[in-house]
Amino acid sequence: MDNTYSKTADALMDTDKSVILEAKHIYKTFPGTVANDDVSLELRKGEVLALLGENGAGKSTLMNVIYGLYTQDKGEIFLNGEPYAIDNPHDAINAGIGMVHQHFMLVPVFSVLENMMLGAETTKGPFLNKKAAEAKLRDLSESFGLEIDPHAIIEELPVGLQQRVEILKALYRDVEILILDEPTAVLTPQETEELFKIMRRLTERGVSIVFITHKLKEVLAVADRIIIMRRGKVVGTTTPAETDEHGLASMMVGREVILEVEKAPAQVGKVVLEIEHLNIHDNNQMHSVRDISLSVRAGEVLGIAGVQGNGQSEFVEAITGLRRYNSGEIRIDGKRMPQEKPRTLVEHGMAHIPEDRQKHGLVLQYPLTSNFVLCTYYREPFSRHGILNENEILRNAEELMERFDVRAPSPVTVAGDLSGGNQQKVIVGRELSREVSLVIANQPTRGLDVGSIEYIHKTLIEMRDAGVGVLLVSSELDEIMSISDRIAVIYRGEILAVLDAAEASREEIGLLMAGHISE
Amino acid sequence: MEEQTPSQNNWLKKVWFSVRIPFLAIILALLVGAIILLVSGANPLEAYWQLFKGAFGSWRNIQRVLEKSTPLIFAGLAVALGFKAGLFNIGAQGQLLLGALMAGYVGFAVKGLPAYIHIPLALLAGLLTGAVFAAIPGLLRAYSGAHEVISTIMLNYVAINLSDYFSEGPWKDTTPGNIVSRLPAIQPSAEIPNIGPVPVGFIVAVLTSLLIWFVINRTTFGFEINSVGLNPHASKYAGMRTKLLIVAAMVVSGALAGVGGAVETMGVVGRFQPGFNTGLGFDGITVALLARNNPIAVILSSLFLGAMKGGANTMQFYANVPNQIIDIIQGTMLLFVTAEMVVRWVFKLRKQRDTEITVTSGWGQR
Ligand SMILES: Nc1ncnc2c1ncn2[C@@H]1O[C@H](COP(=O)(O)OP(=O)(O)O)[C@@H](O)[C@H]1O
Ligand SMILES: [Mg+2]
Fold it and tell me: How far apart (Å, rounded) are the C-alpha atoms in residues A433 and A334?
């Protein structure tokens, strides 16, 4: 595995390459936040410059300034030594700077070619010259090895290919600088490696790349130089040769980071959650969950490992009251739970950290105060006789922000303005601050940075040690291995095996995840 | 003046941020109206001056504006409450019509009651009718997924035909000589009185706005309504009974529209007569959007619309400008408020997150 991350030695030594882009003393504030605080960086020709930092560190903001989406409050930018002042992306592209955003900006119903031409139309008289455009696109994809069908419709392409279209779109506009904002967040490990190869090919052709990420392994694998940002400031510059994961992590978070979770042996109590013969048919009468029986005991973490899309989402939705199931029984503390009644589950001590925090976990337009009482607003002290108690709700938010380390300008900031990590902390805080006997956590750290991941793992272990039963569902094997006491492996809607975490090996679980039952 | 303290400044800024789009939309609409007046050979300044005089030139005129605003407030609240729950209640018109009909019926058919019983009784009849009639699209939306925009548009026709039937058939005014299809005049005991130039109905409307504001912003029910409107998935996750809430929101919305119809019958027209309240429910949409669904602002936008309606006749008479210019201005205003982008572009405003409004959730969502 690690071999694929190594690269040629001369790439490391190219420190004499000429500077193509230089940002000096950039300040950028948003109401309540200093997103960039005196940030300077230089990008050299043909290098991959990694911009590493936790969520909310200000990476996207800095790049959006360079790309002309935001205007800096102070500071200057130089392109090839010339002052560079632009205030829209169109000018940036004309100046040779392209950016692939965290959220793609493609027209889903258009073809690859049509997306390519949008805003950079090749015309012949008053008409679009599709032929010429297609020829140019084919040329590009060939010379950079970015295979794509020009007539494929965007929404029918997998995410990895959509990203490739975004990159091609930039190349189509003849950019020399390519900014990739967290490109790997949406990719599978295989697609990630493919992307790294493409990045290498681009730099060989003289393209300079700014690669934004918060994943340490990736930085070490692909970067020539690394700039680390923390809370709006640049806190260090290094190279993969000079550092390792621990070094990067502590620079990024600002303190020593424990990449492994420490935990004492489980003190297991009585069974809190029992699931018996649970079956879910999806719309095509296919089984998305097949006869699952499991139990979670107080004081243990039961991890459910599996490749994404093997019925985990349906399973969790069923046991948390968000989806009907066709047959089976779910009991909490021995009491049978009704179907599709999330509030009954809450009343019986269940906490649910949902997979999709923006869809289920938060009302993004609501302030944090309201989000913190989303499941308990109807109870005292937050309301009485149907009237909300604003003071209590505010006090609650202040307390939880402090206790769960939520970084936001104020308790009335809307949840949508928070970084992913902080949004997740709001959910974790809300769910774990009330009396609970059972925690269902589905992909609780997806898309989060090291600091937040560490924090959430620690909190889950604390719950377990306090005698709460924890059901953790994750497609990250590392996560499952590091905090579970027992591990169940799900494959095509079935639990293939339940193993003792202390005895299970990665290989064994990996095989089960691929559907191989060992004898 | 002393320099403003930062907090004052902030407060003013906030108010400005929340009113600037509707305010500028109104200005733009008046400009468009002025251009149309110019093109058709009239003097826009003269026309607007007469419009203003017609609205506020005398106590009698002011009273007319308040009378006209009263049903608008109720209709606006009805639509605004729907929007809060993510529902586009185009059916406010039909609910209002049937509310007006039932209030008209109770107003003339029930005899011998003192005013302090008769008036609330007739209002209640309007309220319940609107509520029941709105429950239908509510139930359809919640339990079968039928989009309320379509079902309420269709139910509007049902309401029109029902009210035509009753005013031509069983409840027709049989006074000798009457050939119009309408109900008999309501009893004097059902007429909403005035205190000075202020109709009691207007006072009730203002109090209702305050009440709705309180319900939306300070109660658990309001919290649930807002949550369902903003994110039905998270609301379900939070244990709210989302389907029931949709029905409840429609019912309350319909009740408000029904009362709007009732006060029109009992405070302005004096009987139920089809055609007299046409468009009030749709005006409610304009009112709600101008007010950005804020119940307090609904009072202001209703007064504004009421003033234009109240002053229209004077303008037509003295400035020799057709009444319809008011409809054009109102339509343009609505266009600008909904196509907020245009206003931003004209005035070069930057986007501010908290001033966005959700007009309705998409088709077939949920
Ligand atoms: N448009 C915006 N309005 C207000 N605050 C913003 C906006 N964009 C980013 N921020 C804030 O600026 C900070 C930096 O954000 P960002 O640059 O997106 O971080 P990163 O990309 O490193 O995760 C965060 O605190 C974020 O909440
Ligand atoms: Mg970012």
Answer: 24
